[in-house]
Design brief:
The chain has one helix spanning 2-38. It has 44 residues and is mainly α. The longest helix is centred in the middle third of the chain and has 37 residues, at 2-38. It is rod-shaped and about 60 Å long.
């Protein structure tokens, strides 16, 4: 019966990890946009 909790945790951890990576990417992009605007440069 303990394996059910391990499998459940394993399955439920992936959305949390995905959300963390998405937040990291969005934060880095926001900082780059902010820095580029300050320096009057394009992102691309």
């Amino acid at each position: 019966m303990d394996n059910v909790y391990v499998y459940g945790f394993y399955i439920l951890i992936w959305p949390a990890l995905t959300l963390a990576v998405l937040i990291l990417i969005c934060t880095a992009t926001y900082r780059d946009v902010k820095k580029a605007r300050r320096q009057n440069k394009d992102i691309v």
